[in-house]
């Protein structure tokens, strides 16, 4: 969508919002929050809006409005019950979930144990191709819901699976169900905080296990906001407060999630007064943002891990020596200083420093900038004469990707080109189809606060976000042993051993650990972003 069209729509939306909320200079006290006002938040185009199939940050932000999770996390990153009344286990294998009464879906249906069981069975069933299916892999019976294609490359093709429902899910009563895992997992309660475990209403189903066509265009959730209309692709998604929600009430009447193809347009709308929250100030504006916004330019901790990924299944990237040499040719500190204005930190390990068990400098020599050694190692390993870095153009990555390419060209003596895809969803679709894209930009923010979440999904042989084809039996074994450990302390020891394998094999290049660098308009206050990269929609309010 052209930027000019986006700017025109935003201006129109502003006029409608101001008229609806009374923020038009009519003499009202501007410090009095308007509980019916609508807030505008910039996002990229989501890839999906079914909770079990949405594994990127734009979709996660919208789903945080539409769905209330079983658990959330306190300041110490410990889980506490939200939609759940209790989650208990005596052996870390058999878990009993009791739901709070009073929760309803946005169409009035009661949220019951069946709402979770039906949604999770659909999520785990391999032929449905849900991106979050991996997270159900610890539940008993998961393997029987998968089919493998003739080449053994994935669960979405081939013969019909043995079963369609997880044997590990059992209904006890309308508000109680049990989850039996294939093995113990002490951190499983934290896993249940991820939105892929959201419930779905009866209205979602065309038949048993089959979603209604079009449900994704207007999902029906159990959260503090409900859809207003349908998903307007590449334009906007609107939600409005759901007054029947039994949990904490929002301080606003709704949200317009304005979809941008480039971050610069998002930020330009903020400066022009046509947007209320820019979740990520673009790189090129980091220097000017303090002057542009004053105390409305905010920073907060973020669990983001930025990295370059290798399609290890391609011959030119099959050797770990080639991958390590490329890593050694990148001056992370220089990029952080000159491009990111020290708003991020260099990454030389694979796990966010916010987590228990995280250690600095785990990838050792491979993450130390040494251009002479890098070039010699690259040539000795037979690295390709041409490199490509693909990235999503809607995420503000152009400047640093081009700078990284320049470093690789200069330090390795290769021809490096940067190639944008219009949207992150487009890049992911190409990578999933194994369309040649060269190295590609990726990032990860935690789904739940555990080292396991930075290891299994990203590098496990069947990991949900292992787009690079990495597979190592010892790594898989160590992650599994960590999951089966009796407590977090013992689990961390195994996860740290698994991380050492990544340091040896380098399926990806750690680049940076991020922080939330965001800004907001004069209309709104109490704007906070959490370590998951989401605006807290229960705290934000309109005061102008």
UniProtKB/TrEMBL annotation:
Extract the InterPro entries matched here. Answer: Peptide/Ni-bd, SBP_5, SBP_5_dom
Q: Which CDD domains match?
A: PBP2_NikA_DppA_OppA_like (cd00995)
Q: Which Pfam families does the record cross-reference, listed alphabetically? A: SBP_bac_5
Q: Which Gene3D superfamilies match?
A: Dipeptide-binding Protein, Domain 1, Dipeptide-binding Protein, Domain 3, Periplasmic binding protein-like II
Tell me which positions the record assigns to the signal sequence.
1-25
Q: Keyword annotations for this protein?
A: Signal
Residue intervals of the Solute-binding protein family domain: 83-465
Region (Disordered) residue ranges read 145-164
| Official protein name in the record | Peptide ABC transporter substrate-binding protein
């Amino acid at each position: 969508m052209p930027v000019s069209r986006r700017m025109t729509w935003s201006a129109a939306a502003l006029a409608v919002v101001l008229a609806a909320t009374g923020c038009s200079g009519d003499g009202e006290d501007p410090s009095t929050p308007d509980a019916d006002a609508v807030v505008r938040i910039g996002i990229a185009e989501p890839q999906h809006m079914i909770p079990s199939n949405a594994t990127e940050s734009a979709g996660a932000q919208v789903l945080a409005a539409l769905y209330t999770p079983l658990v959330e996390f306190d300041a110490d990153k410990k889980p506490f019950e939200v939609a759940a009344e209790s989650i208990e286990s005596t052996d870390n294998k058999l878990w009993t979930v009791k739901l709070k009464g009073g929760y309803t879906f946005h169409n009035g249906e009661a949220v019951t144990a069946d709402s979770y069981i039906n949604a999770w069975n659909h999520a785990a069933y391999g032929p449905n191709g849900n991106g979050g299916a991996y997270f159900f892999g610890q539940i008993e019976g998961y393997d029987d819901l998968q089919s493998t294609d003739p080449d053994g490359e994935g669960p979405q093709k081939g013969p019909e699976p043995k079963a369609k429902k997880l044997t590990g899910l059992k209904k006890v009563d309308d508000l109680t169900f049990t989850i039996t895992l294939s093995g113990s997992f002490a951190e499983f309660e934290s896993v249940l905080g991820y939105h892929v475990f959201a419930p779905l209403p009866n209205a979602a189903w065309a038949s048993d296990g089959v979603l209604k066509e079009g449900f994704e265009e207007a999902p029906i959730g159990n959260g503090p906001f409900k859809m207003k209309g349908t998903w307007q692709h590449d334009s906007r998604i609107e939600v409005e407060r759901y007054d029947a929600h039994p949990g904490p009430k929002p301080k606003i009447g709704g949200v317009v999630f304005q979809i941008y193809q480039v971050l610069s347009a998002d930020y330009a709308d903020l400066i022009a007064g046509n947007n209320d929250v820019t979740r990520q100030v673009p790189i090129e504006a980091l220097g000017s943002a303090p002057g542009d916004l004053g105390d409305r330019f905010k920073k907060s901790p973020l669990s983001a891990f930025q990295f370059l990924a290798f399609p290890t299944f391609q011959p030119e990237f099959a050797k770990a020596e080639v991958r390590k040499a490329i890593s050694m040719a990148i001056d992370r500190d220089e990029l952080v200083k000159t491009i990111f204005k020290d708003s991020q930190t260099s990454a030389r390990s694979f796990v966010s420093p916010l987590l228990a068990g995280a250690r600095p400098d785990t990838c050792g020599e491979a993450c130390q900038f040494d251009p002479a050694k890098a070039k010699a190692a690259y040539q000795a390993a037979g690295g390709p004469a041409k490199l490509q870095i693909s990235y999503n153009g809607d995420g503000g990555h152009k400047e640093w990707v081009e700078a990284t390419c320049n470093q690789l060209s200069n330090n390795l003596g290769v021809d490096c080109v940067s190639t944008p895809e219009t949207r992150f969803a487009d890049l992911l679709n190409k990578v999933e189809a194994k369309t040649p894209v060269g190295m590609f930009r990726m990032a990860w923010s935690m789904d739940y606060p555990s080292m396991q979440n930075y290891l299994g999904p990203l590098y496990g042989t069947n990991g949900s976000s292992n787009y690079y084809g990495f597979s190592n039996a010892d790594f898989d074994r160590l992650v599994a042993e960590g999951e089966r450990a009796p407590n977090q302390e013992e689990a961390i020891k195994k996860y740290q051993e698994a991380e050492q394998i990544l340091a040896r094999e380098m399926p990806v290049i750690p680049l940076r650990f991020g922080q939330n660098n965001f800004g907001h308009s004069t209309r709104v206050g109490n704007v906070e972003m959490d370590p998951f990269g989401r605006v807290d929609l229960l705290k934000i309010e309109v005061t102008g």
